[in-house]
Amino acid sequence: MRGKDMMITFIESYGRSAIEDPAIAPGVDKTLKNATKRLSKAGFASKSGWLTSATYGGSSWLGHSTFLTGLWIDNQNRYRTVTAGDHMSITRAFQRTGAWRTVGIMPGVTKGWPEGKFYGLDHVYDSRDLGYKGPKFSWSTMPDQYALKAFQRLEHGKKRDKPLMSEIILTSSHQPWAPIPKTIPWSQVGDGSVYKDIQKAGKKPADVFTDPTKVKTEYGKSIQYSVNSLIDYVLKYGNKNTVLVFLGDHQPLARVSGDNASRDVPVAIVAHDKAVLDRISHWGWDDGLMPGAKAPVWKMSSFRDRFLDAYGPNPGGGTAPAAPSAKR
């Protein structure tokens, strides 16, 4: 992983239902299959599996923290206790090596966020720092494509003496799933003013959220938008040193996923360097961005140690990228 630009990206409400619910899956599955082909054509490979989230339908930060720390964090008291301590997260392990610059792109954060220090982020860009001049899309402060373009402008596209480890939160698939942004040419993103007409032309939350059919349809479209924004970014701005891990934080609420849905979310790793995926060949993950029904299902809290074991100096030996004592 040395020398690689690492992106850990959470897609809001991207759950197993997006891939398996018959009312949602056709469009999402087509998007994932097409994205896999597009990546392959550009020299990237990918593998995917399932993680069982610590939260369901909301409280995204519990999923983020569980994934990054390797601890099961399923309530607010647990979250406060963990983030007040010094437990090693994936991002902090990279920071600790001194070989990466660590940054957070947090469009959903609208005020001070002291957890950035806990996560070992050298700099956090919240919604106020990303330069967005366009309208909100219901809960989401800005479209995912804009947030990614801001990441390119502020960090990834600059000359650096270190590679990046970036935590990026994409919010366009947050309920109520209306209005949904449209994908536009990257050259037109600008300061986000272009989204004013797009937002006005979109569906109204009240017309979508209370309709059981429409809400599933629009949820699926929002996931397609988020996945396409992310993969488009990798194809346009990524290179041979790009490594992307992306996943859902939790399933959408029961209005969309149903009363008996699992807590599983998809997770995928994308890399141009074949050696990156060779390190996880023993995981048994499926090829491509869309995990199958029989792909491995792990607790979300198990990912940190598996990841650090795979990519530490001694693969399988339990050593994190930071130092032998990093995992605590």
Describe this structure in words.
This is Sulfatase N-terminal domain-containing protein. InterPro entries: Alkaline_phosphatase_core_sf (IPR017850), Sulfatase_N (IPR000917). Residues 34-252 form the Sulfatase N-terminal domain. The protein is of the alpha/beta class. It has helices spanning 16-20, 25-41, 60-69, 76-83, 90-97, 115-118, 144-156, 195-201, 205-208, 212-237, 254-257, 274-278, 303-311, and strands spanning 5-11, 45-52, 101-106, 123-126, 164-170, 242-248, 264-271, 286-287, 297-299. It has one domain (5-311): Alkaline Phosphatase, subunit A. The protein is 37% helix and 16% strand. Strands 1, 2, 3, 4, 5, 6, 7, 8 and 9 form a nine-stranded mixed beta sheet that branches. The chain is globular. The relative contact order is 0.24. Mean pLDDT is 94; it is low at 322-328.
What portion of the residues fall into strands of 2 or more residues? 15-25%
> Helical proportion?
25-40%
Question: How would you describe the oligomerization state of the chains in this entry?
Answer: single chain
Radius of gyration over all CA atoms, rounded: 18 Å
Q: How many strands appear in the DSSP assignment?
A: 9
What is the string of SSEs from the N terminus onward? EHHEHHHEHEHEHHHEHEHEEH
CATH topology: Alkaline Phosphatase, subunit A
CATH superfamily: Alkaline Phosphatase, subunit A
How far do the termini sit from each other?
Answer: 21 Å
CATH hierarchy class name: Alpha Beta
Q: CATH architecture, please?
A: 3-Layer(aba) Sandwich
What's the story with the biggest beta sheet? Answer: 9 strands, mixed
Number of domains: 1
Which word captures the global form?
A: globular
